[in-house]
Amino acid sequence: MKALLQRVSEAAVVVADDTVGAIDEGLLVLVGVEPADDESTARRMVERLLNYRVFADDAGRMNCSLRDTGGGLLLVSQFTLAADTRKGNRPGFSTAAEPAAAEALFSRMVSMARQAHQPVATGEFGAMMSVQLVNEGPVTFLLEV
Predict the structure, then answer these.
(1) What is the pLDDT of residues 79-119, one digit of tens each?
(2) CATH class of 2-138
(3) Which of 6, 55, 69, 78 is labelled catalytic?
């Protein structure tokens, strides 16, 4: 599982002119599910997202996590993160989980996140989404579990 997290002052996901998920300050996380991922992978990723220290403390150092700040978490499934880009000029997607398996695991991940933290918002699995964000810093990290 891969997660591209971005520290944001605000972020939203729009599908067909409707905002389906939005947060104020927090993390926008694009999630790529791979074939070997399972519930333990999702649980580990949720823990990392909630505890990853990317927010400034009083001294301006990245020492605070989402749990510390109480900020929002916007999770967006993005199969292209799992693409194989090692060669050629076109990505391959054999390294991404099948859509049904990815949707089930992503949904489980969202449930885990909601049990552990609030607020949690999402995009719409499989939809053409417009993701809007204001990246603060910019701060962007790729996490892999």
Answers:
(1) 999 999 999 999 999 999 999 999 999 999 999 999 999 99
(2) alpha beta
(3) 78
Q: Which residues of 110-127 are buried (b: 16+ CB within 10 A; e: fewer)?
A: bebbbeebeebbbbbbee
pTM: 0.96
Contact 29, 3 (CB under 8 A): yes
Q: What confidence tier does 123 reach under pLDDT thresholds 50, 70, 90?
A: very high
Q: Out of 19, 80, 118, 140, which one is annotated catalytic?
A: 80
The domain segmentation of the chain, as residue ranges, is 2-138
Give, in degrees to the nearest 5, the angle at Cα 39 between 126 and 86: 60
| Percent of the chain residues topping a pLDDT of 70 | 100
Residue 47: predicted pLDDT: 98
- Name the active-site residue from 6, 55, 79, 95: 79
Instruction: Answer yes or no: 78 catalytic.
Output: yes
Cα 3–chain centre separation:
5
Burial class (CB in 10 A: 0-12, 13-18, 19+), 27: buried
Helix axes 39-51, 99-116, angle to 10 degrees: 40
